[in-house]
Amino acid sequence: MADVALDDRGRLTLPKEIRERYGDRYHIVQLHDGIKLVPVAEDPLEALRDEFDDVEKSADELRDDARDLALDEAGR
């Protein structure tokens, strides 16, 4: 973990090791007690494809399963 500070123009410089590991683009998420930097992939669509490569169900099947689970949890 590293401590960094904003410069006089409000810019934040991340350490080289962080940039090399996670890249140069980040989404800033505001939390109730701070912020979080979430790396943005060079090709977000390709990253999604890679993330869900092993999913064998269709989008309709996933949606139906999620709806059924929500209904069960709600006490259907």
List descriptors.
16% strand, SpoVT-AbrB_sf, SpoVT-AbrB domain-containing protein, two-stranded antiparallel sheet, SpoVT-AbrB_dom, 2 strands, Pemi-like Protein 1, Chain: D, coiled coil, 3 helices, DNA binding
Secondary-structure blueprint of this entry?
Layout: H1 16-22, E1 26-31, E2 34-39, H2 44-51, H3 59-73
Antiparallel strand pairs: 1-2
**Low-pLDDT ranges:** none
Order of helices and strands: HEEHH
N-to-C CA distance:
46 Å
Specify the biggest β-sheet. Answer: 2 strands, antiparallel
Number of contiguous helices: 3
Total tally of structural domains: 2
Top-tier CATH class of the largest domain: Mainly Beta
The structural class is alpha+beta
The number of distinct β-strands equals 2
- Taking all Cα atoms into account, the compactness measure Rg is 19 Å
Strand content: 15-25%
Could you say what the CATH topology of the largest domain is called? Pemi-like Protein 1, Chain: D
